[in-house]
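Hi Y.,

Following your request, here is the sequence exactly as I used it, all 837 residues.
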Amino acid sequence: MGVKLGDLKNFLADADRRNITDLSVQAWVKELRHAMYDATDILDLCQLKAMEKGPSHNMGCFNPLLFCMRNPLHAHDIGRRIKKLNERLDSIKARSASFNFISLGSFEDRGNNMVSPNSGTRETSWGLDESGLVGEKVEEDMRNLVEMLTQEHQSDQKYRKVMVFAIVGVGGIGKTTLAQKIFNNEIIKQEFSKKLWLSVNQDFDQIEILRRAITEAGADHLAAVNTKATLERVLTDALKGHKTLLIMDDVWDNRVWEGVLRTPLVNATLGHGSRVLVTTRHDIVAQGMLAEKPYHRINKLEPEDAWLLLKKQVVGNENNDEQKVDTLRHIGMEIIAKCDGLPLAVKVMGGLLRQRKTWRSDWENVLNDSIWSLFQMPTEINNAVYLSYHDLHPILKPCFLHYALLPKSKRFWANTIVAMWISEGFVHGKSCDLEVLGKEYYNELIARNLIEPDQWYVDQGVCNMHDVVRSFAQYVVRHEALIAHESESGLTDKLNSQNIIRLSLQTKESESNEVAWSSIQEHISLRTLILVGKIKINPSNSLASLLCLRTLHIDGGIFDALSEYLVKLKHLRYLSIRGTDTSTLPENIAEMKFLQHIDLVGCEHLERLPSGIGKLQQLRYLALNGTGIDNVPKGFHGLTNLKILYGFPVHMDVDWCSLEELRPLNQLMDLGICGLEKVFSSSFAIKARLGEKLRLRNLYMSWTIRCGDEDDHQLQLVADEEQGQIEKVFDELRPPPCLEKLSIDGYFGRRLPRWMMSATVVPLGSLRILAMDDLACCRELPNGLCELPCLEFLQIRRAPAIKRVGHEFIFSNHLWVGAAFPRLLKILFIGMVELEE
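Below is the corresponding structure, written out as C-alpha cells. Let me know if you'd prefer a different format.
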C-alpha cells in the first residue's frame, strides 16, 4: 500500500497542474485524494493502538502497522481495509497511464527546496503598504478625493450634513489601496477627529458590523445585551459631537449603510460635516447609498505605471537590482499587456517573477506559458492568479487553498493558520521545526502577493486575501470543500447533496434561525470543519458521526452540549472552540492522543482544565486567554512538546507556584503569562527558568492592571512592600537573549527590571518589538533601549508616573551600535498624561 501510494503521489504534482481545466484529470485526482485520506486513517488507527499500549511503543523506529497486524484483535479489520484500499489503488494507477503524467518526485522529498532563495520577506510598514502605489495618477486621485471630503460646499446646509462619496471599479483595480492612502493622509487626520475603517463583507452581519464600528470609534461594545438597538446607541454616543470620516471598503449591498450605520452616524454627527467614503464594484451600491455624483472611477493602469508597479515588486529582493530588471523591460511590458491593467494581476505577476532569476529565459518562460492562452476559462479564474498558483511548489498549494476556507469577516493570526496547516499534514519536516517551516510557507505566500499583510497589525501577524484570489482558490477546491454563508440561497440543499471533505460555514449572530447541527453531522467524511457563529443544537446531536475530523474550529455560539463527545474524535489534531459557552472539557481528554492544538480563548464559563491534560504528549499549542481558568493542574509540565502557550495563569498554593510547571517546557517559542502579581517570592520566578528557553521568540507578561479611570485612588492601594516584591520577581523573570518580541502589560513596580535597564545583564540583541502598556507606577524608562541593534517597534501606553523622557533615553554612555535606535521604524507614546518633556 505504501509503495503504491508513493508512486501515485509522485504523479500528483503534475496532475494538479492539469486539474483545473481537464475534467477527466479532476475525477482521477479526487479519487486519489480520497484514497490517500483513507490510507492515513488506517495508519492513524494503527498508531493509536500502539500508543495505547504505553509510551514504550511510541518510538520513531516502532512500526505501528506491524504491531496491529501481529495483534489478532486488530489484524482482521485492518487487513480487510488495506486489501480493499489496495484494490482501489491498483485501479487508480492503471487509469493514470492514460494521462501520461510526469513523475515530479514526492512532496516530502522536495520540501527542503520549497522556499525560493529569492523570496525573502518584504519589509512592510505598520501603516499603508506603499508597495502597491505607483504613478502620478494615484496621487492626483488622492488629492481630488481629499479635497472633495474636506471642502466646504456652497450650501452651508449641504456641508453640514453627512455626505457619501464613492470609489467605483472592478475587482483588483486598486480601490482599497486608494482608500487606504486617503485614510492615512495628513489633511484627513487634521480635519476629522474620528476616523473609522470598516471592511464590509459580501454577506455582512449587522451585529458584527456595529461591534467593529464601535471598536474603531474607540469605545467598548461589551454591553450586557448586544442587540442591534443597544449597539446603535453605543455607536451614537461614541461619535457624538465628532466630525467623522467613515470608510466602508468593498461594499456589495447598500443596506449595510441604510439599515445599519446611517442612523447612528447621522444622529451623532449631524451638523459637523461628517463624511462617508465607500469603495464598491457596482454603481447600484453607490446609487443606493445616495453617493454624490459623479462617482470616482478608477481606470486601469497605464503601461508605464504598470511597469513601475511590476518592477517595484521584483526589485524588493536584494539579489534583483534595478539595472538588471530594466534590461528585461521589453519582456516585462509584454507580460503587463496580459494583465489588462489590473494592479492586482501586476502585483501577483511581480510576486511570481520575484521568485525567478533575472534571466531573459526565466522571464520568457513566464511570458510564453500556455496558461495565458487558455480560452473559455470560468469567471472565477484570473489568468495571472492561475499562473502564480501553477508556479507554486506542490507543498504550498494546499496551504494557499486552505487559506480560502477562512471566513473573510474573521481575523486569523499567523500562528493559528500555521497550526491548522500542521494539523492537516501540509507542513513537512522535523517535528521540532514545523512552526518555523509553516511560517516560512506563510511568508512565501506574502512574497508572492497571494495574501497581503493587514496594515493594522504588527509584524505581518494578520493577512488578507483579495476577493479575486479568494474566488480562484475556492473554485479550485469546489469538488471537496464547501465555503458558505447562512444567507446563501439553497444552502441546505448544498449541505445535503455534496460529499464534502472540508466545510467552512458562517452564520449570522443577529438571526434566530441558526443552521441546525444535524445538517452538519451527516457529513461523515468531514476532515475539516470551520464554523463561525451560532448553530442550533438539539439533545440528540453529537460529534459521534464526524469520526474523521482532523480540524474543528468553532468561533462563538453554543458548543457545551457537544463537548462531552470530543474524545470520540480520535483523529482530531486541531481544536478551537473560542468564544463558545463551553464550561467543561472531558476528563479523559488524554485519550485524544493526536491532539496538537487547543484554543480556548474567550471561553468565559470554562474554569478548569482536565487533570490529565499533561499527558497530551503531542500538544504543541494551548491558548487560555479570556477563560475562567486561574490554575493549571500539577503534571502540566508533561507538555514538553508545547511550542506556543498563551494565557498561562499564575497560581500560588502554599509552597507551590504554577510557574514551576514551566521549567521543563524548553521547546516554547511563544509564551504568555498572566497574574504575575500573585507571586510572593522571587524564588518561584527563578524556577520558571525563562532564560533557559533558547527557542523562545515572543514573551508576554501581565499583571492585574492598576491604571483605570480613577488612577490616583487605585495607585494609593499599592503598598510599598507589594511594589518591592513584584520588582524582585520581575528581576528574576529574565528572558533568553534570542527573544524577538516582548510585551509587558499592567506592571505596577516603580522601576523596570534590572535586565532591561542594562544591556550587559541580558543582551537583548535580537529584540525587534517592545510594547509596554499600563505601567501604573513606573517612574523612568530604560536608558539602554537605544542600544538595541534590532529594535524596530517601540510602544509605551499609559504610564502616568513618567513625567519626562530625557536625552539619556536616546544617548547612552555605553552605546556600542554606532547610533541610537539603528533600526527603529516606529515609536508610539500613548496616554502619557503626566509627560512634561
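Residues 135-297 form a domain with the Rossmann fold fold (CATH 3.40.50.300).

Thanks again,
Q.
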